[in-house]
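agent> call fold_tool(seq_1)
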Amino acid sequence: MYSAPLRPGLDVLRDHIHLFNACHRGVERECLRVTGDGHLSLSPHPGGLGAALTHPQITTDYSESLLEFITPALADPVRTLESLDDLHRSTYANLGDEFLWSSSMPCALPAEEEIPIAMYGTSNTGRLKHVYRKGLALRYGRTMQCIAGIHYNFSLPQAIWPLLGGGNRRERTDRDLKSWVYMGLIRNFHRYNWLLLYLFGASPAVNADFLRGRRHELERLDGETLYLPHATSLRMSDLGYQSHAQSSLAPCYDSLTGYIDALVMAMGTPYPLYGQIGTHRGAEWVQLNTNILQSENEFYSNIRPKRVARAGERPVEALKDQGVEYVEVRSLDINPFLPLGIDESQAHFLDAFLLFCALRESPLLRDGEFAQGVANGLTVAREGRRPGLVLQRGAQSVYLKDWSNELLADIAPLAEMLDCAKGGGSHRQALAAQSAKVNDPSLTPSSMMLATMSERGVSFNRFAMDQSRLHAESFRKRPLPADRLMAFRALADASRAEQARLEKEQASGFDAFVGAFQGSLLSLSGDHATLI
């Protein structure tokens, strides 16, 4: 059996097993607002939800119609999902006759130019967010920005770091030690992310109109639906959110410094096609700059190192100054069978999987290993349930089923340790559920979705709308208690007041504000970056 060793210190951790109770995780869920007939809502962000610019938990992503829920980072995944449940129930109290879309791939969309870009008011900060999204529309199209997913944010407990340093502890500051471990987690995640796509991919089909006439290799399931019979996640395939400009960007995951340098270079390097567009049409801003990336948030990745930034601080500045605080997993589809798009079993497995990635030895990515990981992910996204599917592991070809079972066996000790720390057997049960999917692909969400559509004789859009209605009923039958509803109303009121304050107190014009935003990279860039 192929198996790499765990980092030195796992035996030490067994003597401090209580520390596993202090891992934190938060969830960000994106979802479209839709009308009762399964079309994109064109109405503004509901006023009762507060100001999208300043609300800490309910905002918008690309579109005015694309909600994003953000839970706090909590030590108990059950409480994290309870928080996400509260956000859904609060939203439905303000949604009128609209629904939250149950799938990652979009509903029936209007013409490209009619998809509304998110608005954030007249403050410089709000205008910056809006212009950034206008740039995304020019670069990738509005339709692509309507794809939704779930982000899983995970951090190790503070008390674990002295135990993970091993023999290298004296050579690293606390900041460097944390970043070293988290970057190792990220390298291993790139090696094994394909497993998550197989287990949790839930986008094997799309509305035919989604492709807008683009060439594709999908098959027709019915008059309204395109699919691939063995696909797990078309969202994570080459049909999803991809960037030709970013294909030239090769972030270095060997170190945090290398990663930051790659992002800063991309944010300072002009891209000819974007240069032809320019930043203005007349007096109107249409994108923040003409570089490969307008900002660090534009970088598309399955996982990111993250640090909560202070007010006025850019994410890349926060990483440079204070190091990695947590990782953001971005490759998870919304499960249309689950009201929240994710459940406790998936969260328990993700915790064990991410601990495994953090604690397993993680050599630097060499000899095309990163490209191989990307290729394996694309293969699984498009045909992960194909019988006898083979992936590449270095120079070796290996069956997906065999490699999956090897990885699950290696993750098992982490699931056991988590159960010992928390009591019960929820992590081992979650692991067993994933093992069953490996041995029986019909249990995967992607397979269940296609089977349900076939049994009901419905299109993708009809299936997802039916699920949206079921989930809406479950939330509306459980309205929030009065005190919780009042707390959300207070958050909404405070967010509106804060947006009004920003709009009233801004000290400079927008052009100067964008110039300062661009200039903030000067302290990070080196001679290699060209900034506008």
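agent> call fold_tool(seq_2)
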Amino acid sequence: MGFRLPSSVRYLPRRAHIFSTAAVVYAILKITQLLNRAFRRNEEQCDNAWIKANTRAAEQILRTSTARRGLWIKCCQYVAARSDALPPEYSTVLSKSLDDCPPTPPVQVIETVTNQLQETPFGIEFQSKNGRLVTISDVFEGFDPARPIASASIAQVHVATLKTSGQRVVLKVQHPGIRPMLLQDLQDLKTLLTWIAGAEPKYDMRPVLDAWIRMVPLETNFLNEMANLQAVKTTLSTAPDHLMADAYVPEPMPHLTSDKLFVMEYIDGCKVTDIETIDKYSVNRDELITNITRSFGNQLFVGHVFSGDPHPGNFLIHELEDGGVPVLLDFGICVKVEEDVRCGFARLILAAIDNDSYSIVKALSEVGVNLNRADPTASLDIIKYLFRTTAPQEESRKEQNAMKEKLEKNNSQMERNARDTPIHQVFADEPMPEDVEKPGKRESRSPVDSFPGDLVFFFRSLGMLRGLAVKMDVRHSYLDVLRPFAEHAIKVSCPEQDQMKEVVYRPVFTSGRFDALTAARVLQRVFHILHEKEMMIGMQVAAYKNGKLVLNIASGQRGRYDLRPVTTKSLFNSFSSTKGLTAILFASLQDDYDVQYHDLVTKYWPEYGQNGKESTTIAHILSHSAGLAQALPEDMNMLRLRDDWKGIIEHLETSRPAHVPGERSEYHVLTFGWLVAGLIMKITGHTYQNHLRKLVKEFGIEDECFCGTMPEDLLPDVSGSRVASLSSSIINDIQRGPIGKAIAHVKTGNCSNKKYDSKDKTSKAAEDIGGVRNPQEEAKAILNNLNVPATGLSQAPAYLLDLNFFNHPVLRAGFVPSANGHFTARALAMLFAAVGNKGAVDNKELLKPDRVEKMQQMFCKIDPEGRRAWGAGVTLYDTVDKSGKLTKHGAIGHGGIGGSFAFAVPSEKFSMAVTLNKLNALSVSSAVAIVVVCRIMKIPMPVWYHDFGKLIMKTLKEDGPVELESEAAVMEKLFRSGGESDLMKMLIG
């Protein structure tokens, strides 16, 4: 064996060339930057200078990469595919690297093909039969080693004809010595990136290379590539009909394939980037991109494997005369994903489509990315930007610049959010949870360094789809194309035995009363209609009469993408219905401690009497008149919300009211619960949670009623969890849907205001970056600009304005006794059953009889007509019976944003609760359920629901089942005839 130099010496000239090129590129860019500053060039002059500099830098990179081939060609290919991510000069110049590498000399090609043929199954059999080694001429005709049809980073491709059949085939021949060279290149690239990370830590991309290092050796094994190709081909041909992709994978020749030689059928066609030829044959570019996207969705979500090294050079367009069919090539790097990661990718796609920030965070966690726990919204702009709809090149550059400006503007805030806020102290009489990070713990982390390899390849594939669409000048919503594939992945991941079988969960409980039985039968028909029209996801309805449960029914599934059925034991976050629980809990303690409504708060809570709050009474707090609607602590991140009880109380003690206590009522969306909980602790010496645990245990609902007390096994959306996942469309309803159009009509007198036209997909509705909407910013805009009375939400942290974030385990465990109660409908109905039955339920006294009467005392009006008013922490509603008789404040209860509602009618000893997980600004499903039960059981109902229900029934009768196809149609019809809307009724129930 001849002497070989060590690789460190053998590759020294190559490495010197690479590092010197990096120095030259750095110098070009740095000098341009300095000259722009020194000569104070204007914007146009700077742009021209950067165009020249980027072109020179790209040409330098291309020359070196072309000479050195290997990994550097692959880097060029990736950059060339990202027309949207880098200045266009790089894409234009580096696109020449796609399949234009210097070919291997013919002598070496002949040597490689001959040697590899002898190792194939055909070559081994040939030698056994003929007593000699196989040669190229024994297998192929027309093979020209000097004329490859393409030459890329790993191999080059030749065309030949099989002697036995006359079939044309391609031979993918590996460049000699490519494997050790690639490994050395990877190490050099990692060194370069280490230098960059040292100069600019936030650009530390080294973790991305870890995945490449693992995958590159596989790419140099053509037997592995053939297995990948066969897997993809099988998936494409056996997928369900609605998931088929009009794409083709060449047929491999296993008997002629070895480690360094891959033979497959020859497919004629043009490059996907050959726009001139594509247009010559009038091929629809959008359909072409759609089919390529569908093939990717098929690989990832149906076949569990996808190409991890895509670039435009790996696609041909075949059958141009018949409209064009994409041909998929090169499966050297394929990512095989586990079931949980595949579902994580699917949920990431669906969350991006739904603009659901929390689900994005959750899906990232499932695939191994953990964003900052204190405020996970901090890094979401980048993720959403990656998922935006593709746009033509000029528009794409504008999007890129807008995103850059936005990130620079928010950089300091993101850095603050990257550090956990210190936790002051947890609940006074309860231990600190073991998983809470201790005060002072700081951890700085680049957004990239937590990305696992699979996710890097996933985003790279999406980047290729985006870059290809930009290059072909196509506006392409690849997320919409991928949706059915992602939904399929979620569905098959849920065992069939666990999936919802019927819309209504069995058994349905009724007490045997004829009216309850009738209501149950009608509700079952209603639930089927609501589910068919997608007006509900999951829902529970429960009712008590004379202190006894008479109806308990559940329907639907636990989440939009959680196919498990809702049962009567499923838990729902009912938002402000939690205020009803808080008010009842406080009322249950008042008589034991002789607390009067006219008592000053300082009688029990001396520290509260600061900064103009000295005159605040118990009644002011219970009627939302304390003036602290906006008094939210700063830096209210999730961990502080869950654990910093002392800090929140101290903040309320020192806050200055917005007005003299009692002067007017402003809805205390969040602060109400903390104020009442603070009173409970100061009056009794024990926490709200301790009193709640005692109450729910006494009345047998300890596993159906939680607020800051939820056990850990219920927090995640796992197999054993009973918690329903929330899906909020409130922002869309108000800003873009029929409700938005009604608001526009009220504000402008023109119902066709384009900004709110839900049918106009190119309207102002998609004005955010790349069409990706920001629900938190939209919520603030709505609260600030649509005449909603002050609520405190406009000052809330971003994650609290996106109701989907209440799916977050930290928020579910958070102590927010205004908005974070988790209930079954039975538990809520039971609590209000005591209010409706002189304080007793199930033959147990929860409240003193006269306390119920005092809770119904009106402290102030909510609306000018006085049809709704504040009692002792609950809402008083005018009621109307079937005959139209009106009763002033005949019902007492509280609604929650999105549609949950619980109330009692004391005159009828009746109570009812509705819980649901599809949150709408106006919930048709909730209103219909209340109207059905109350009408059949002859119970007076709140006027709002009575009127709304009449409007719904009228709409249903007018349109009938044929024309009425969606919730949006119902809402639009309602608002067309319903006149001006009352936003407070929509937002707080």
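agent> summarizing second result for user.
The CA atoms of residues 243 and 360 lie 24 Å apart. The radius of gyration is 33 Å.
agent> awaiting next instruction.
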